[in-house]
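Input.
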Amino acid sequence: VGESLGLQLYVVISRAISLHAVKEHLAEHRAFLRQMEDANHLFAAGPLWTEDAIGFEGDGMLIYRAESVEAARALADADPMHARGARQYTLLPWMLNDGALTMRVILSRNKREVH
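Output.
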């Protein structure tokens, strides 16, 4: 996936320092993610649930497209969650080898599905 675009994928495991701080910066974080989508830097992102799949303690995972580990780190540093100290992150290069992604877009109903 990354190779065809000249980009590498990077996984960011983003651990909450404080759930209160995460909630405080959530709107700014989501706006940042929309900018990342528009710039084609965001492959995927979302919250991580607790191991029992019942709760949320503020952690998240993001997958970036970037030309280098330095470029990916600059993206992670710019995320309001990290820049404001609500979360700390670990950045790992990722080689996507297996899996399947199917997308269905229904234009007349403004609907999209990913399987």
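Confidence is low (pLDDT under 50) at residues 1-5.
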